[in-house]
Amino acid sequence: MQKIKLKKKRRFKYRLIIYAFIMFLGYELSFNIIMNLKLVNSNEDFIKALLVDSNYHLLYKKKADDIFTKIFSKIIDVNEPVSILENTFHFKPNTNMTYVTNPKIEEVEKLEVNPSVYIYNTHQSEAYQGNSLEGYNIKPGVMMASYLLQDKLAKQNIKADVMEDNITDYLNLNNMSYNKSYIASRKFLEDALNKYKDYKLIIDLHRDALPKDKSTVIINNKSCAKISFVIGVDHNNYEQNLNVANKINDKIKQKYPTLTRGIINKGGEGSNGIYNQDLNPNIILIEIGAQENTIDEVLNTIDLLAPIIGEYINET
C-alpha cells in the first residue's frame, strides 16, 4: 500500500514538472510573439521602424536573452503590427525604445535598380504639429516626411535615396549658425552627387511657416498639407530647375488643383537665391505643409504626390 502511495506521489511530481515545463514553454512562446525585438541604432533606423505597411503602424517588441527566446525567434515571425500612429504624434528619438525594422523599407533597399530620386532636408529640425503619444516622446518632422516619401515612391517602383548625414552635428562641430544650413547641406549633397550623378530628381524637402488655414486643404474627404515649390533664380541655369518644378506642379494642378500653392521664385538682396540648385538642374525645393500640420496630413499629401513624381520620373 505504501509503495502505491509513493508511486502516486512520484507521478504527481512528474506531472507537476511536465505542467510547469509546458507552462514555461507557453509563456516563452507568447512572450516571443508579443515582445520579440530588434534594437535600432540611429534616428534613421527609428523612423524606418515607424513605417510598417501603410506607414500608420508601429510594431514594437522587447528583447529577451535566454535560449528559449532565441530558439522561438528563429521559428516564429510576427507580421501583425500594432496600430498606434492613427493620430498625430511627437517625434524625438528615445534610445530606450526598441522597434522592429520595417520589411517594406527593406524592400526599398533591395530594389535591383539604380536610384532615380534623392531626398534630403537642409533644415532637418523643421517639425510638424503633434499633441498625442507624448509617452513615446515622438515628434514628427521633415526627416520623417522624407522616409514616408521614400516608402511611397517604392510602391511606384521608384527607388529613392535619403540623406543620412546629420546637418545639425555638422553645424555644431564647425561652429556654424543655423542660417548656414545650406552650406552644410551643400557639402553632403556634393558628396552624394560625386557618388552618383544620374538622379532624375533631387528634392530638398522642407515645411513652411504659415497659419493652418493657409497650409491645409481637404481632398477626397482627407485633410492634406498643401505643397509649394521654391526656386532660386540667382544662378545662371535656374531655368532648368524651374522647368522641373513646373512639370511636377502642372501635374499636381491637373489632378488636385487646390493642393499646390504654386512656385515661388526667390532671388535678390536678402534672399538665398540659389538653394544649392546650381549643383544640378534636377534639384528642386518642395515645402509640404507648415508648422501646424500633422504628420497624418503630410502623409495624405505624400500619398497624392508620390504617384505624380512616379509619372514624372517615368517620362524623364
Largest sheet: 6 strands, mixed
The spatial strand order of the largest sheet comes to 4-3-5-10-8-9
Order of helices and strands: HHEHEHEHEHHEHEEEHEEH
Counting DSSP H or I runs of 4 or more residues, the number of helices is 10
**Radius of gyration, CA atoms, in whole angstroms:** 25 Å
Instruction: Give the helix proportion (percent range).
Output: 40-55%
Summing up helix and strand content along with how strands pair, one would put the structural category as alpha/beta
Strand content: 15-25%
Shape: elongated
Uncertain spans, ≥5 residues at pLDDT below 50? 35-44, 51-109
The counted number of beta strands is 10
Note the gap between the termini.
93 Å
Which CATH-level-2 architecture of one domain? 3-Layer(aba) Sandwich
| Average predicted local confidence, pLDDT | 78
